[in-house]
C-alpha cells in the first residue's frame, strides 16, 4: 500500500487535491503500520518536506503537518535524522506572515509530537522553539489588547 502511495505522491506533486489525499492516506497507513513504518522514512520524508514548504496551498501543508505528527508518534527516535530540516521548516513557517493562520497552531502541536518522539535530542531545538513561542505569546497579547 505504501509503495503505491509513494508512486502517487511522486507523480502528483503539482496536483494539490491528489497530493493532499495521498498524504492523508499515508498518514493513516503510518498509524496502522506503527514502528514498522521506519522502512519507508527515507522515501517518504521528501514528500513531507515538500508538503510543509507548500504553505501557499494551505490544505496540503495542514494535512502534511498532521501526517508528520503521525509519523513522529509511530516511529519515535527514527525520525530524529530528519528533524534538523523539518524543525527548521516548521520554525520558518511559524515566523512567516504568509503562512495561513489555520496552520500555525498545528505546527506548534507537531513540534510537541517531535519532542516526544526524539526525547532528549529535542534539546538542540529548544532555544529556537522558545523564541518562536515567546513571539507568538506577544502577538496574542497584542491582539487581545487591541480588541
UniProtKB/TrEMBL annotation:
Entry's Gene Ontology cellular component terms:
cytoplasm
Q: What does the record list as GO biological process?
A: protein import into nucleus
Per UniProt, subcellular location reads as: Cytoplasm
Family matches, as Gene3D superfamilies? Leucine-rich Repeat Variant (1.25.10.10)
Superkingdom, natural source: Eukaryota
The Importin subunit beta-1/Transportin-1-like TPR repeats domain covers: 1-142
**Does Cytoplasm appear among the keywords?**
yes
Q: Name the UniProt key words of this record, in alphabetical order.
A: Cytoplasm, Protein transport, Repeat, Transport
Family annotation (PANTHER family): IMPORTIN BETA (PTHR10527)
Protein name, as recorded: Importin subunit beta-1
Q: Which organism does this sequence originate in?
A: Tetrabaena socialis
